[in-house]
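not sure who needs this but someone in the group chat was asking about Disease resistance R13L4/SHOC-2-like LRR domain-containing protein from Prunus dulcis so here u go. i didnt clean anything up, its just raw.
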Amino acid sequence: MSSGCWRKMAESPDISKLIFFFSYVVVLTLLMCIGPTKSQAQAGTLADDEVDALREIAEQLNKKDWNFSDPCSNVPTFSTPRTDQYNNTLVCNCSFTGNVCHIQSMYLTGQELDGVLPPALVKLTYLKQVILGQNYLSGSIPREWTSTKLEFLVLSVNNLSGPIPGYLGSITTLRALALESNLFSGTVPPELGKLVNLEMLYLRANNLTGELPLALTNLTKLKVLQIGSNNFTGRIPDYFQSWKELRMLEMQASGLEGPLPSSLSALNNMKDLRISDLSGESSDFPNLSNMTGMQKLMLRSCNITGAIPELISNMTSLSVLDLSFNRLEGSIPNLADIMQLATIYLTSNLLTGLPDWIKNRDSR
Protein backbone atom coordinates (compact mmCIF):
# COMPACT_ATOMS: atom_id res chain seq x y z
CA MET A 1 0.00 0.00 0.00
CA SER A 2 1.48 3.37 -0.94
CA SER A 3 2.47 5.79 1.83
CA GLY A 4 0.27 8.46 0.24
CA CYS A 5 -2.82 6.58 1.39
CA TRP A 6 -2.27 7.44 5.07
CA ARG A 7 -3.55 10.46 6.96
CA LYS A 8 -3.13 11.15 10.66
CA MET A 9 -4.66 13.26 13.38
CA ALA A 10 -1.12 14.01 14.55
CA GLU A 11 2.30 13.02 13.25
CA SER A 12 3.02 9.36 13.98
CA PRO A 13 6.29 8.85 15.92
CA ASP A 14 8.79 6.06 15.59
CA ILE A 15 6.97 2.82 16.40
CA SER A 16 9.56 1.79 18.99
CA LYS A 17 8.80 4.93 21.01
CA LEU A 18 5.13 4.10 21.24
CA ILE A 19 6.07 1.30 23.57
CA PHE A 20 8.87 3.09 25.39
CA PHE A 21 8.09 1.41 28.69
CA PHE A 22 9.01 -2.04 27.35
CA SER A 23 12.55 -3.08 28.07
CA TYR A 24 13.22 -5.01 24.89
CA VAL A 25 13.03 -2.29 22.28
CA VAL A 26 14.92 -4.11 19.52
CA VAL A 27 12.49 -7.01 19.19
CA LEU A 28 9.46 -4.76 19.52
CA THR A 29 10.71 -2.44 16.82
CA LEU A 30 11.15 -5.32 14.40
CA LEU A 31 7.65 -6.61 15.07
CA MET A 32 5.85 -3.28 15.00
CA CYS A 33 7.53 -1.82 11.93
CA ILE A 34 4.38 -2.72 10.00
CA GLY A 35 2.95 0.57 11.23
CA PRO A 36 2.56 3.51 8.85
CA THR A 37 5.33 5.97 8.17
CA LYS A 38 5.18 9.73 7.91
CA SER A 39 3.25 10.80 4.85
CA GLN A 40 1.53 13.74 3.29
CA ALA A 41 -2.18 14.28 3.62
CA GLN A 42 -4.54 12.93 1.02
CA ALA A 43 -8.16 13.92 0.53
CA GLY A 44 -10.51 11.63 2.39
CA THR A 45 -13.17 11.62 5.06
CA LEU A 46 -13.67 9.30 7.97
CA ALA A 47 -16.78 7.13 7.66
CA ASP A 48 -19.73 8.63 9.56
CA ASP A 49 -20.27 5.56 11.72
CA GLU A 50 -16.64 5.71 12.86
CA VAL A 51 -17.00 9.39 13.78
CA ASP A 52 -19.98 8.43 15.94
CA ALA A 53 -17.95 5.60 17.46
CA LEU A 54 -15.13 8.02 18.26
CA ARG A 55 -17.55 10.23 20.18
CA GLU A 56 -18.57 7.23 22.29
CA ILE A 57 -14.96 6.20 22.80
CA ALA A 58 -13.97 9.71 23.86
CA GLU A 59 -16.75 9.79 26.44
CA GLN A 60 -15.79 6.38 27.84
CA LEU A 61 -12.07 7.25 28.01
CA ASN A 62 -12.85 10.73 29.33
CA LYS A 63 -10.89 12.24 26.45
CA LYS A 64 -11.83 15.82 25.69
CA ASP A 65 -9.56 17.08 22.93
CA TRP A 66 -10.39 15.15 19.76
CA ASN A 67 -11.31 17.02 16.59
CA PHE A 68 -14.48 15.30 15.41
CA SER A 69 -14.88 17.58 12.40
CA ASP A 70 -11.94 15.91 10.65
CA PRO A 71 -10.43 13.14 12.81
CA CYS A 72 -8.07 12.00 10.05
CA SER A 73 -6.56 15.43 9.41
CA ASN A 74 -2.93 16.30 10.05
CA VAL A 75 -3.97 19.18 12.31
CA PRO A 76 -2.77 18.56 15.89
CA THR A 77 -5.63 18.48 18.36
CA PHE A 78 -3.82 17.37 21.47
CA SER A 79 -3.33 19.20 24.74
CA THR A 80 -0.04 17.58 25.74
CA PRO A 81 3.24 17.71 23.79
CA ARG A 82 4.29 14.65 21.82
CA THR A 83 7.42 13.15 23.38
CA ASP A 84 8.62 9.66 24.18
CA GLN A 85 6.10 9.58 27.02
CA TYR A 86 3.16 11.26 25.27
CA ASN A 87 1.40 10.38 22.07
CA ASN A 88 -2.01 11.39 20.76
CA THR A 89 -2.38 9.88 17.32
CA LEU A 90 -5.06 8.36 15.16
CA VAL A 91 -3.81 6.70 11.98
CA CYS A 92 -6.33 6.41 9.17
CA ASN A 93 -6.24 4.29 6.05
CA CYS A 94 -7.60 6.39 3.19
CA SER A 95 -6.91 3.99 0.34
CA PHE A 96 -10.54 2.96 -0.06
CA THR A 97 -12.75 3.99 -2.96
CA GLY A 98 -14.97 7.01 -2.60
CA ASN A 99 -12.42 8.97 -0.53
CA VAL A 100 -13.53 7.10 2.58
CA CYS A 101 -11.07 6.66 5.45
CA HIS A 102 -11.06 4.07 8.23
CA ILE A 103 -9.18 4.21 11.54
CA GLN A 104 -6.48 1.56 11.68
CA SER A 105 -4.38 2.58 14.70
CA MET A 106 -5.04 4.45 17.95
CA TYR A 107 -2.08 5.65 20.01
CA LEU A 108 -3.03 7.43 23.25
CA THR A 109 0.03 7.24 25.49
CA GLY A 110 0.42 9.43 28.58
CA GLN A 111 -2.80 11.35 27.99
CA GLU A 112 -3.93 11.26 31.66
CA LEU A 113 -7.09 9.43 30.64
CA ASP A 114 -9.03 8.42 33.75
CA GLY A 115 -12.07 6.71 32.25
CA VAL A 116 -12.61 3.06 31.39
CA LEU A 117 -11.67 0.89 28.45
CA PRO A 118 -14.29 1.72 25.80
CA PRO A 119 -16.62 -1.10 24.68
CA ALA A 120 -17.38 1.11 21.65
CA LEU A 121 -13.91 0.29 20.30
CA VAL A 122 -15.53 -2.71 18.62
CA LYS A 123 -17.33 -0.31 16.27
CA LEU A 124 -14.00 0.58 14.62
CA THR A 125 -13.99 -2.55 12.50
CA TYR A 126 -10.71 -1.73 10.69
CA LEU A 127 -8.75 -1.18 13.90
CA LYS A 128 -5.52 -3.19 14.20
CA GLN A 129 -3.42 -1.42 16.84
CA VAL A 130 -4.53 0.04 20.18
CA ILE A 131 -1.93 1.65 22.45
CA LEU A 132 -3.45 3.06 25.66
CA GLY A 133 -0.45 2.85 27.97
CA GLN A 134 0.64 5.25 30.70
CA ASN A 135 -2.81 6.50 31.70
CA TYR A 136 -5.19 6.12 34.66
CA LEU A 137 -7.76 3.86 33.08
CA SER A 138 -9.62 1.58 35.48
CA GLY A 139 -12.03 -1.34 35.40
CA SER A 140 -11.69 -4.45 33.28
CA ILE A 141 -11.21 -5.38 29.63
CA PRO A 142 -14.58 -5.28 27.82
CA ARG A 143 -15.96 -8.55 26.50
CA GLU A 144 -17.07 -6.67 23.39
CA TRP A 145 -13.45 -6.49 22.25
CA THR A 146 -13.50 -10.19 21.41
CA SER A 147 -15.21 -9.24 18.14
CA THR A 148 -12.23 -7.15 17.01
CA LYS A 149 -9.33 -8.19 14.80
CA LEU A 150 -6.69 -6.43 16.88
CA GLU A 151 -3.05 -7.32 16.32
CA PHE A 152 -1.42 -5.08 18.94
CA LEU A 153 -3.09 -4.34 22.28
CA VAL A 154 -1.06 -2.32 24.79
CA LEU A 155 -2.74 -1.45 28.11
CA SER A 156 0.40 -1.17 30.24
CA VAL A 157 0.77 1.22 33.19
CA ASN A 158 -2.87 1.82 34.09
CA ASN A 159 -5.17 0.95 37.01
CA LEU A 160 -6.96 -1.99 35.40
CA SER A 161 -8.03 -4.63 37.91
CA GLY A 162 -9.76 -7.95 38.42
CA PRO A 163 -8.80 -11.21 36.74
CA ILE A 164 -7.35 -11.29 33.24
CA PRO A 165 -10.44 -12.37 31.29
CA GLY A 166 -10.26 -15.72 29.54
CA TYR A 167 -12.24 -14.33 26.62
CA LEU A 168 -9.11 -12.48 25.50
CA GLY A 169 -8.19 -15.82 23.98
CA SER A 170 -10.86 -15.18 21.34
CA ILE A 171 -8.82 -12.35 19.76
CA THR A 172 -6.70 -14.83 17.85
CA THR A 173 -5.26 -12.14 15.57
CA LEU A 174 -3.22 -10.70 18.46
CA ARG A 175 0.53 -10.53 17.94
CA ALA A 176 1.29 -8.43 21.02
CA LEU A 177 -0.54 -8.28 24.35
CA ALA A 178 0.81 -5.94 27.03
CA LEU A 179 -0.94 -5.85 30.40
CA GLU A 180 2.05 -5.03 32.59
CA SER A 181 2.01 -2.61 35.53
CA ASN A 182 -1.68 -2.84 36.35
CA LEU A 183 -3.67 -4.33 39.24
CA PHE A 184 -4.72 -7.59 37.62
CA SER A 185 -5.13 -10.48 40.07
CA GLY A 186 -5.92 -14.18 39.99
CA THR A 187 -4.39 -16.80 37.74
CA VAL A 188 -3.29 -16.57 34.12
CA PRO A 189 -6.26 -17.93 32.15
CA PRO A 190 -5.44 -21.02 30.07
CA GLU A 191 -7.49 -19.49 27.25
CA LEU A 192 -4.49 -17.29 26.44
CA GLY A 193 -3.05 -20.45 24.92
CA LYS A 194 -5.44 -19.91 22.01
CA LEU A 195 -3.47 -16.83 20.92
CA VAL A 196 -1.31 -18.89 18.59
CA ASN A 197 -0.10 -15.81 16.67
CA LEU A 198 1.17 -14.07 19.80
CA GLU A 199 4.78 -12.91 19.63
CA MET A 200 4.94 -10.64 22.70
CA LEU A 201 3.29 -11.19 26.08
CA TYR A 202 3.79 -8.74 28.94
CA LEU A 203 2.20 -9.64 32.29
CA ARG A 204 4.82 -8.32 34.72
CA ALA A 205 4.11 -6.10 37.73
CA ASN A 206 0.59 -7.23 38.58
CA ASN A 207 -0.83 -9.33 41.42
CA LEU A 208 -1.06 -12.61 39.52
CA THR A 209 -1.02 -15.87 41.45
CA GLY A 210 -1.09 -19.63 40.89
CA GLU A 211 0.89 -21.69 38.42
CA LEU A 212 1.47 -20.90 34.76
CA PRO A 213 -1.02 -22.88 32.65
CA LEU A 214 0.29 -25.66 30.43
CA ALA A 215 -1.77 -24.17 27.57
CA LEU A 216 0.89 -21.46 27.16
CA THR A 217 3.00 -24.07 25.38
CA ASN A 218 0.76 -23.45 22.36
CA LEU A 219 2.34 -20.00 21.95
CA THR A 220 5.13 -21.28 19.74
CA LYS A 221 5.70 -17.89 18.07
CA LEU A 222 6.56 -16.09 21.32
CA LYS A 223 9.60 -13.85 21.07
CA VAL A 224 9.16 -11.83 24.26
CA LEU A 225 7.74 -13.02 27.59
CA GLN A 226 7.76 -10.91 30.76
CA ILE A 227 6.05 -12.23 33.90
CA GLY A 228 8.18 -10.86 36.77
CA SER A 229 7.01 -8.95 39.85
CA ASN A 230 4.00 -11.18 40.49
CA ASN A 231 3.04 -13.77 43.11
CA PHE A 232 3.06 -16.98 41.10
CA THR A 233 3.51 -20.31 42.86
CA GLY A 234 5.10 -23.61 41.96
CA ARG A 235 8.22 -24.40 40.00
CA ILE A 236 9.40 -22.68 36.86
CA PRO A 237 7.75 -24.82 34.18
CA ASP A 238 10.05 -27.14 32.27
CA TYR A 239 8.60 -26.60 28.81
CA PHE A 240 10.80 -23.91 27.31
CA GLN A 241 11.38 -26.15 24.30
CA SER A 242 7.93 -24.97 23.16
CA TRP A 243 9.20 -21.39 22.97
CA LYS A 244 12.25 -21.78 20.76
CA GLU A 245 11.68 -18.37 19.16
CA LEU A 246 12.12 -16.51 22.48
CA ARG A 247 14.53 -13.57 22.33
CA MET A 248 13.67 -12.09 25.71
CA LEU A 249 12.57 -13.90 28.89
CA GLU A 250 12.02 -11.97 32.11
CA MET A 251 11.08 -13.76 35.36
CA GLN A 252 12.46 -11.40 38.00
CA ALA A 253 10.81 -11.85 41.40
CA SER A 254 7.92 -13.73 39.83
CA GLY A 255 7.23 -15.88 42.90
CA LEU A 256 8.12 -19.07 41.01
CA GLU A 257 10.49 -21.60 42.56
CA GLY A 258 13.61 -23.33 41.32
CA PRO A 259 15.41 -25.27 40.16
CA LEU A 260 16.24 -23.76 36.80
CA PRO A 261 14.78 -26.21 34.27
CA SER A 262 16.98 -28.05 31.80
CA SER A 263 14.73 -26.99 28.91
CA LEU A 264 16.26 -23.49 29.10
CA SER A 265 19.00 -24.90 26.89
CA ALA A 266 16.53 -25.03 23.97
CA LEU A 267 16.36 -21.23 23.71
CA ASN A 268 19.02 -20.80 21.04
CA ASN A 269 17.75 -17.36 19.96
CA MET A 270 17.90 -15.84 23.45
CA LYS A 271 19.39 -12.36 23.72
CA ASP A 272 18.03 -11.13 27.06
CA LEU A 273 17.53 -13.63 29.91
CA ARG A 274 16.53 -12.33 33.34
CA ILE A 275 15.54 -14.64 36.19
CA SER A 276 15.86 -13.72 39.86
CA ASP A 277 14.78 -14.47 43.41
CA LEU A 278 14.08 -18.18 43.14
CA SER A 279 13.36 -20.17 46.27
CA GLY A 280 13.27 -23.95 46.33
CA GLU A 281 15.86 -26.42 45.13
CA SER A 282 19.34 -25.49 43.99
CA SER A 283 20.58 -26.19 40.49
CA ASP A 284 23.79 -26.33 38.52
CA PHE A 285 24.60 -23.53 36.12
CA PRO A 286 22.20 -24.00 33.18
CA ASN A 287 23.47 -25.11 29.79
CA LEU A 288 23.56 -21.89 27.76
CA SER A 289 26.11 -23.10 25.23
CA ASN A 290 23.91 -22.34 22.20
CA MET A 291 23.03 -18.81 23.32
CA THR A 292 26.03 -17.13 21.73
CA GLY A 293 24.00 -14.04 20.82
CA MET A 294 23.22 -13.22 24.46
CA GLN A 295 23.35 -9.50 25.29
CA LYS A 296 22.01 -9.40 28.86
CA LEU A 297 22.26 -12.34 31.25
CA MET A 298 20.81 -12.05 34.74
CA LEU A 299 20.55 -15.13 36.95
CA ARG A 300 20.43 -13.31 40.28
CA SER A 301 19.62 -15.12 43.52
CA CYS A 302 18.65 -18.32 41.71
CA ASN A 303 20.36 -20.73 44.14
CA ILE A 304 22.90 -21.80 41.50
CA THR A 305 25.82 -23.94 42.65
CA GLY A 306 29.11 -24.96 41.06
CA ALA A 307 31.45 -23.03 38.81
CA ILE A 308 30.81 -20.28 36.28
CA PRO A 309 31.22 -22.08 32.94
CA GLU A 310 33.83 -20.98 30.43
CA LEU A 311 31.13 -20.98 27.74
CA ILE A 312 30.14 -17.45 28.78
CA SER A 313 33.28 -16.25 27.01
CA ASN A 314 31.58 -17.23 23.73
CA MET A 315 28.83 -14.65 24.31
CA THR A 316 30.71 -11.97 22.43
CA SER A 317 27.78 -9.50 22.41
CA LEU A 318 27.24 -9.64 26.18
CA SER A 319 26.91 -6.21 27.82
CA VAL A 320 25.44 -7.09 31.25
CA LEU A 321 26.27 -10.11 33.41
CA ASP A 322 24.61 -10.49 36.81
CA LEU A 323 25.20 -13.76 38.68
CA SER A 324 25.08 -12.26 42.16
CA PHE A 325 23.64 -13.86 45.29
CA ASN A 326 24.16 -17.49 44.31
CA ARG A 327 26.53 -20.18 45.59
CA LEU A 328 28.97 -20.12 42.72
CA GLU A 329 32.52 -21.18 43.53
CA GLY A 330 35.93 -21.43 41.94
CA SER A 331 37.57 -18.83 39.72
CA ILE A 332 36.06 -16.24 37.41
CA PRO A 333 36.48 -17.24 33.74
CA ASN A 334 38.38 -15.01 31.36
CA LEU A 335 35.88 -12.65 29.70
CA ALA A 336 38.44 -10.11 28.54
CA ASP A 337 37.57 -10.58 24.86
CA ILE A 338 33.94 -9.55 25.35
CA MET A 339 34.45 -5.92 24.44
CA GLN A 340 30.79 -4.94 24.99
CA LEU A 341 30.75 -6.18 28.60
CA ALA A 342 30.15 -3.03 30.64
CA THR A 343 28.47 -4.34 33.81
CA ILE A 344 29.40 -7.37 35.91
CA TYR A 345 27.73 -8.32 39.20
CA LEU A 346 29.17 -11.33 41.04
CA THR A 347 28.43 -10.20 44.60
CA SER A 348 27.70 -12.70 47.40
CA ASN A 349 29.11 -15.89 45.93
CA LEU A 350 31.95 -18.22 46.95
CA LEU A 351 34.30 -17.19 44.15
CA THR A 352 38.05 -16.98 44.70
CA GLY A 353 40.58 -14.50 43.42
CA LEU A 354 40.39 -11.40 41.27
CA PRO A 355 41.67 -12.22 37.78
CA ASP A 356 44.11 -9.92 36.00
CA TRP A 357 41.70 -9.23 33.15
CA ILE A 358 39.30 -7.51 35.58
CA LYS A 359 42.13 -5.47 37.12
CA ASN A 360 43.31 -4.41 33.67
CA ARG A 361 39.80 -3.46 32.59
CA ASP A 362 39.26 -1.36 35.72
CA SER A 363 42.50 0.51 35.05
CA ARG A 364 41.41 1.67 31.60
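also Confidence is low (pLDDT under 50) at residues 1-42. if thats useful
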